[in-house]
Design a protein that fits this description.
Blueprint: H1 14-24, E1 47-57, H2 59-70, H3 73-77, E2 81-84, E3 93-100, E4 103-117, E5 120-127, E6 136-144, E7 147-156, H4 162-181
Antiparallel strand pairs: 1-7, 2-3, 3-4, 4-5, 5-6, 6-7
Helix pairs in contact: 2-4
């Protein structure tokens, strides 16, 4: 079974991320409360953090926001290297090269839920053994009247890493704004 890798100075290559995906294929999630970032489950040992931003108005921007999430453009725009084993749907896995100050880490997740409504689209993914944290994160864009909102929820154990998660959330929010402004 794959274990959490050590931070590295150089970004991982796509080949290294594909190997990380292969090494965690069929692995169990590292937490039990599947769906917790979307309010579908509870866990007493995990803490929720939420970040929301109004992106801008207009239905065309909502469609662009959905496409940016669906295609992993938001993650790439936030500075992550992304290798996924298929489209964003339940059961799909993704390996991420995540920059942290002066180092890079590999994080592997599995999509555990997809939100697909007329006025909302998004997904939640959960951590697999080759991930530096434990828990779940969701990314949902929604249309509320004339606004497009982007909400990120991270449900993880209490940790000193929270400032890094807040920084990551701000990067995702800015990346989505750039994607819809194009």
């Amino acid at each position: 079974m794959a274990r959490v890798g050590l931070p590295r100075l150089a970004p991982p290559t796509d080949a290294a991320l594909r190997r990380a995906l292969a090494s965690t294929a069929g692995a169990r999630l590292t937490y039990d409360a599947v769906g917790c970032s979307l309010g579908r489950a509870r866990s007493d040992d995990l803490v929720e953090h939420t970040w929301t931003a109004v992106v801008s108005g207009g239905s065309d921007r909502f469609e662009r926001a959905v496409e940016a999430l669906r295609s992993w453009q938001v993650h790439r725009g936030a500075g992550l290297r992304v290798v996924a084993d298929g489209p964003t749907e339940v059961g799909r896995e993704v390996a991420l090269g995540v920059p942290l100050l002066v180092a890079q880490v590999v994080a592997v997740c599995r999509v555990v839920a997809v939100v697909d409504h007329d006025d909302a689209w998004g997904f939640a993914y959960g951590t697999l053994p080759l991930h530096p944290e434990r828990g779940e994160e969701s990314f949902v864009v929604s249309r509320v009247r004339h606004d497009v909102r982007f909400t990120i929820r991270a449900v993880t154990p209490p940790s000193w890493r929270r400032p890094f998660s807040a920084l990551g959330a701000r990067r995702y929010l800015r990346a989505l704004q750039r994607a819809v402004d194009r």
